């Protein structure tokens, strides 16, 4: 009888260069979103899978935004289907002069894969695709189906990606793994909710030389609103008993691995004033100002209550504008550590690394919320240099890319009972 676990781990070691080259090629596609165009990178992925004997179904959410589904294995009705999920879009590179290298070079230098998307999340996506292709090349027998779901839209809210596919029943599964960035020993099994909104303040224009005597500045009014919204931090969550332990575990993890103060984010409403757009000219009193707010919502608080409290705070300083939701919105969610897929992936990390592994929460949000909405247990695990995510000089450690690919492979073997 073939020892599939031993064989596939050996093959990943032998084919490290292929894995890294594939991840490098993914970065070389400048799939920034916005504007959003996944056609070239999607075709490259489909060609790679075709060489491994795997076909791909294409679901166009929009003409330039392709969702891909590639299956390995053939589940019977009611059988297991494990979804490996990743997104091809990346946030814009921004000011190129502030990068130390070409953001789309995909070079490997000093033990790191370099470029926009290296950590979020083309190295992880590459690991998933490489793993599915390798299972096919080796002919690994699975009890069920491994479905690769590659989506074109996550960074702007994901509405043309995972939610779009699940709503239309173009894919379904019994469990999912997303290759979003995480700690090498700590997959994320839950996340805070989100409440993104914007408000527009109206003012009265006038000549700038007469301010504040003449006219009413919309920017000054908006500034008072911005200051008032900081009080969202003071909302007290009624944390459910079942998540109190994982919150404390996550706080300890953050204290040990990152910055202790960050742990406060797990039980507070955070407020980020993301953009401010106002005024028409420097010597004209601003007649309008629009502010966009990114608020993250802990367990025990409903995002609609955050929205209502924000409206109260703005009214308290004389702003009675409509609060318009956009982008990410929803409540905190998680997959308990006792779930099969969490157990299998955590066990795989420990087995590959020889170190303790356990799940934690994250303060950001992702496509995981959409899977949980449809009762699909899900967690996130991927290679990353966490401080570089959405930053200049993004990169990912090579050793984590290789470890993650091994973890993906072992997780698939365990969850889908390979060889049985």
TrEMBL record:
Its EC number is 3.5.1.18. Keywords: Cobalt, Hydrolase, Metal-binding, Zinc. Its cofactor is Zn(2+); Co(2+). Residues 189-315 form the Peptidase M20 dimerisation domain. Pathway: Amino-acid biosynthesis; L-lysine biosynthesis via DAP pathway; LL-2,6-diaminopimelate from (S)-tetrahydrodipicolinate (succinylase route): step 3/3. InterPro entries: ArgE/DapE, ArgE/DapE_CS, Bact_exopeptidase_dim_dom, Peptidase_M20, Peptidase_M20_dimer, Peptidase_M20A. The keyword Calcium does not apply. It catalyses: N-succinyl-(2S,6S)-2,6-diaminopimelate + H2O = (2S,6S)-2,6-diaminopimelate + succinate. Pfam families: M20_dimer, Peptidase_M20. Belongs to the peptidase M20A family. This is Probable succinyl-diaminopimelate desuccinylase.
